[in-house]
Amino acid sequence: MGFFRRGPEKQPIFLAHCLRCDACIQACEADILQRGAGGYPSVDFKRGECSFCYACAQACTESLFLPRHTRAWDLVFTLTEKLPRQAIG
């Protein structure tokens, strides 16, 4: 299995270490990363969808995107509480 990465570090860490170099923005194949407030990268889903190609993470010279060994579409969740049924009508 390939080496995948997860999203960026928590916001304070990301803001403290992001160089605002635009490498991730330029690498985005979907063209949804834009320069946002303060010059930091920002995702604009009005422009399209993220394909989870991780080109942005690989372009980051500060390694702000950490390793992940599960593809985004393979993530699994489990309900731990039963939700009450509600009558419809």
UniProtKB/TrEMBL annotation:
| UniProt entry tagged with the keyword Iron-sulfur | yes
The source's superkingdom equals Bacteria
GO MF term set: iron-sulfur cluster binding; metal ion binding
What the entry lists under InterPro entries is as follows: 4Fe4S_Fe-S-bd, 4Fe4S_Fe_S_CS
For the 4Fe-4S ferredoxin-type domain, which residue ranges apply? 9-38
**Keyword annotations for this protein?**
Iron, Iron-sulfur, Metal-binding
Name of the protein: Ferredoxin-type protein
